[in-house]
Amino acid sequence: MDDVDLLVVGGGKGGKTLAMDAARGGRRVAMVERGMIGGTCINVACIPTKSLVTSARLLQRIRRADEVGVRVDKAQADLPLLRAHKEGVVGGMVDLNHRQFIDSGMDFILGTARFTAERTVEVNLADGGRRVLRGADVVIDTGTVPRVPVVPGLAEVSPLTSETIMELARIPDHLVVIGGGYVGLEFAQMFASFGSDVTVLDQNARLLPGEDPDVSEVLTGFLREDGVVIHTGVQVERFSGGPGAVTVRLADGREIVGSDVLVAAGREPVTRDLGLAAAGVEVDDLGFVKVDDRLATSAPHTWAVGDVAGSPQFTHVSLDDYRILKANLAGGDRRTTGRLVPWNLFTDPELARVGLTETRARAAGMDVRVAKLPVAAIPRARTMRDTRGLWKAIVDRRSERILGVALLGPESSEVLTVVQTAMLAGLPYTALRDAIIAHPTMAEGLNALFASWTD
């Protein structure tokens, strides 16, 4: 048995950052990763999808080039080039992560770990053989995988997931997307840009039900303008056929026929085969590791970070889990409660969100003011000929502090940090309304947004 100061099981953002940091600090560290060097984000999630979003957006811009005085020959997606672009970005980041792992001085182990006792794992190595490791402290960061629901006929039609579609075997003739969340919508618009017919089926009454209806409806309209067919409030009853000709039967009797099905119905934790019971680590009914607000599990000196711990499923949250756990391992008392978590939907235009929606603020009994600004009112958007969108802000009427914003428009993910910083600092909305912001930029729109009250 190899004893180490820190044993990290799974190489997601939080775990790998903690492992490298501890190793560079002179601690004996071992990290076990079953295959994705760098984690899910780099290999099959954030990085490859946003690489392809870049391609899809460029196609859209080229198709509208005449609007800005440029004539371009017909543009189309080239599958081998798309694959090379995606694999080049991913491969470069995987190589960089691997070098960083080795250079940190950690014991990086490729293999599949299973707990056999408290803080102890047996690892079946990828190249054969077996190792047993025990950590003075153990961190679980095994992440999640796409959830494929049990629906009659679904397994038989070989559905795509957000991971397998990244293999880019072909551009579907007609992609049927099951689920209208942020993963499903990014892929829907992306493949519509690549030339696929796309249909989105969602069980909710509207897309993104966690957003205010006005924001959701505007985004839905833009997706439809871009050729995405959307059916909300529907239940899928069964699937039939096979790859190339899939029939999706809905509960109301309608049938949708497509060449491929993409299941974007959420993610489930990678805990089933970890042997967590032997480690004394409890999980909830869905299989996520139970943690307190210090990220401690039910077992002593055993922690969990990232998606597997039920944290919001964003890489930037996993990174903050690292900060919290690093402090707590050093004797601190940092907690997850009260975090201000932003998120971005990388459709075109982007939707960037932080804080409360109007719906939630009013439901909580808050006295709020609401500001709205069409993106067409922002000069920078006009210079780019990219004026689709709506910005919305919620402000506490008494304190004048910003409670939340939804920014639907070009470059919104970059502007969002400005608002988030003001919220973290507890500044009144007037600080952004009256700030001298460079012209012409998208951030300049914040001057106008916080002077455009509708309530």
Automatic annotation (TrEMBL):
Domain FAD/NAD(P)-binding: start-end pairs: 5-319
Keyword Oxidoreductase among record annotations: yes
Pfam families, A to Z: Pyr_redox_2, Pyr_redox_dim
EC number: 1.-.-.-
Keyword Flavoprotein appears in the UniProt entry: yes
Ranges for domain Pyridine nucleotide-disulphide oxidoreductase dimerisation: 341-446
Gene3D superfamilies membership: 3.30.390.30, FAD/NAD(P)-binding domain
Superkingdom field: Bacteria
Single annotated GO MF: oxidoreductase activity
Keywords (A to Z) from UniProt: FAD, Flavoprotein, Oxidoreductase
InterPro entries: FAD/NAD-bd_sf, FAD/NAD-binding_dom, FAD/NAD-linked_Rdtase_dimer_sf, Pyr_nuc-diS_OxRdtase, Pyr_nucl-diS_OxRdtase_dimer
The protein's required cofactors: FAD
PANTHER family, alphabetized: MERCURIC REDUCTASE (PTHR43014:SF2)
Family, similarity comment: Belongs to the class-I pyridine nucleotide-disulfide oxidoreductase family.
Protein name: Dihydrolipoyl dehydrogenase family protein
Organism annotation: Sphaerisporangium dianthi
